[in-house]
Amino acid sequence: MMDAEAQMQFLYTLRSKGVTDTRTLTAMEKVDRGLFVKGLFAERVYEDMPLPIACGQTISQPSVVGLMTQALNVQPRDKVLEVGTGSGYQAAVLSQLARRVYTVDRHARLVREAQSAFDAMGLVNITAFTADGSYGLPDQAPFDRIIVTAAAEDPPGPLLAQLKTGGIMVVPVGQSDAVQSLIKVTRTPNGFDYDELRAVRFVPLLEGIGQE
Ligand code: SAH
């Protein structure tokens, strides 16, 4: 668990990097990132940096989690889909703000480990699946909010189709590892509005289920 000083430093860093939304900051205060990173890098868990997790993946930088959460503007009644469970940290933050969070990852091991962290925290409004999230979750669609935490070449069509009118999707988009931008897509009655938020760097959105 974080001591009071580490907590203050963590929140100060988030604010200084542009995470100013009170609900987002409160949600991040309640979720101990230490539950989601194990092993070698555990001592750096409260620093504002991405860290390696199992299956060659990464847990995002806290300030990026904060900026994405803030851009998503989740409401208390919302049903949210996350593509890219990874460690489960982003899903746990969203679960503080939404009615229900569905999260999918292509690696069964990551889903299992994230589920134990959700259980340890007593988070009962998250449902985690192993699946190729590029196709969304047709059985649970439509969603009020969709967050993709791996970079796609374009916002995946099935995800756009599963977004409610008035809904928001946040997705890193880019042709390469090096150059990606975080895009906020809003579904209007007439189509989709696109806003470019900032440059980011995510692992790629890959096809199919991962081999363990
Ligand atoms: N949100 C995570 C970080 C995600 S890292 C966290 O808070 O820790 C990106 C994740 O996307 C990886 O775990 C990777 O396995 C997953 N991923 C990549 N392509 C995917 C796909 N098509 N469907 C589901 N998950 C995918």
UniProtKB/TrEMBL annotation:
EC number from the UniProt entry: 2.1.1.77
A Pfam family: PCMT
Protein name according to UniProt: Protein-L-isoaspartate O-methyltransferase
Reactions catalysed, as given in the entry: [protein]-L-isoaspartate + S-adenosyl-L-methionine = [protein]-L-isoaspartate alpha-methyl ester + S-adenosyl-L-homocysteine
Family: Belongs to the methyltransferase superfamily. L-isoaspartyl/D-aspartyl protein methyltransferase family.
GO terms for MF: protein-L-isoaspartate (D-aspartate) O-methyltransferase activity
Presence of the UniProt keyword RNA-binding in the record: no
Intracellular or extracellular location(s): Cytoplasm
Role this protein plays: Catalyzes the methyl esterification of L-isoaspartyl residues in peptides and proteins that result from spontaneous decomposition of normal L-aspartyl and L-asparaginyl residues. It plays a role in the repair and/or degradation of damaged proteins.
GO cellular component, one term: cytoplasm
One GO term of the biological process aspect: methylation
Enzyme class: transferase
Active site: 60
PANTHER family found in the cross-reference section: PROTEIN-L-ISOASPARTATE O-METHYLTRANSFERASE, PROTEIN-L-ISOASPARTATE(D-ASPARTATE) O-METHYLTRANSFERASE
Sorted UniProt keywords: Cytoplasm, Methyltransferase, S-adenosyl-L-methionine, Transferase
Coiled coil: none
Domain of life: Bacteria
InterPro entries: PCMT, SAM-dependent_MTases_sf
